[in-house]
Structure formats: structure tokens, C-alpha cells
Amino acid sequence: MIQVKIKGETSYPKAINIGVPQGSILGPKLFLLFINDLHECRMNGMLINYADDCLLVNAAKNKNMLQKQLNKDLETIKKWCDGNKLRINLEKTNYIFFSLKEKKQEDTMSVKIHECNNNNCQCYEIKSLDNIKYLGIHIDSKLNWKKQIQNLNNYLKITNYHIYYLRNYLDFNSLKTTYYALIQSYITYGILAYGSTYDTHLKVLKNLQKNIIRNVYKNKKIKVQNSIFLNIQQLFIYRMIMFYEKYPLPPINNVHNLRYKTNTCEIPHREKFKQLYTFIYTKIHKIIPENIKNNNQSKNKFKKTLKDWIKEQEHPFELLKEYM
Ligand SMILES: [Zn+2]
Question: What is the pTM of this model?
């Protein structure tokens, strides 16, 4: 039963036979309980759910196989939805085709969630996009992260303007807190994905970060390396090492084996794959000092030691070049 109370007036109770009331505290939990068996369906691809956002990832050797796999998985999902009285919002459903090759006209696929039982199919074609926004991160079909960086850049520009104004009223410590909350937290969100893209793409962010730090220090000449903050590439490395501390068994391959075997990492054939943090980690792991590698310090102490070490590496990616 559901009742609504507005300004002390309570409505008549109404029975809910299916679904969860919007905005309720228990709602999201009930929804998760309702949909979690979707993951028990047999599928070709990998299904990722975040609340009511559903992501299906499929990979195949060629486009035809991919199209087949994808449509088959969508059929499975559709069946599950029908059985559970849920409807897929087709208008909000899109697909993105990732490929390192130049995009051609024939790269579009026919992706449908059929409602026709295969007679005279006029079902809705799911639209292909070059960019999608997933959990606040812009992902593009070439994995260049241009849109993500541009978006972040726009946000940081506006926030820098606020910091520029605030510095007349706040002391350094308050500005520092503001920087961590409004700048660094935004830069680090998704940095494992975009942080290793080409330097030319990151340049604009680096310059802006430099500017913001100058405002925090109220000093036009301060350099990032002389400040207490980590630059973008240092932040990338920091987050990457922290990530592997937290999840020692990464999904792609067990790079932690490198603690024992130092030369097991195969160098990817394609330049693009060298940007994957899973690959970079295997490289950086070779130069991490032993006291950080054999971490037996408290969490805060470890973070501090790690930060200090990264801070010493002014251009951490330069350091990695000889290993790449
Ligand atoms: Zn159809």
C-alpha cells in the first residue's frame, strides 16, 4: 500500500501490485532484488548494471559475429523483461561500436529488440552513437577521450573562476580543501580510463590545472611540482597503484604475478593498447620502490609514502618511456 502526505493531509491508501514507489528509501534495494537474476541469463557478452542503467558489452572478431551475438543477447534480455513485466525504453537505448580502424559506412550494424515474432519485421533500429555518457564519463568510439576531457575542461574553467573569486576571502587551508573537493575529485573521477591518453589531448587540462593551483596559492609563479598537489599524470599513477592495492586481481590478467616474475608482460602490438592502465601498471610496477611494493604500513601512511614518491617523479610518463 502507498499513501502520500502533503502538508499534513494524507491520501487514501492505494495498493501497489507491481513495481516500486519512486523516491522511496527501500525502492532501489527492492529494484535490485527484482532485477539481479537477469545476470543468471546465459549471454555472449558481459552485462553491467548500475541501478536501472544496463550496459551490455560484446566483443567479436568481426562485425557480423558481433551483430549476431549482440542481437542474440538482446533477445535474451527481452525475454527476461517480458517474463518480469518490465519494458525496455528503446528511445534511451543506444549502441556504440568500438574499433581502432577508420570508421566506414558499413560499420553500422542492424541492432534490434524484436517485438514482431519475425513476421514482417518493422521493429525499431537501435541507434548507433559515436559518444556515450556512462556514469558521468564520456566514452568515444575511438577511445580518445576527447569529449571527456573537453567536458572536464569546461567544468574546471568555471570552477577556477569561483576559486579566483574565493581567494579574496579564504586562507590557503580553506582554498586547499576547496581544491580537493571541487577540482581534484573531478579530475580523478575516471582518470584510469582517460588519464593515459595522448599528451596532446591532456595538454589543455594540464595548463588549466596549473592556473587553478596558482590561484589556490595566490601566487602567479608557483609551479605544480613545487606545490603540494599532484599533476594529472601523477594522479593517474597514484590512482592506478591504489586501484591495484584494493583489487589485487585485475580482470584482464593477473599483473600482480609480476611481483615474482618481472618479464611476463607481453608488449601489445597496437599502440592503443599500450595506453591501457593494465599494461602501464605492469611497467610502473618495475620502478615502484620496494617499501611501497611490500606494503605493510597503515593505509594513511601508505598513501603518504606513495604520494611522496610519485611527487618526486616530475614527469612520471617520461620515466616509463624506456619500459614502454
Ligand atoms: Zn522485428
Answer: 0.80
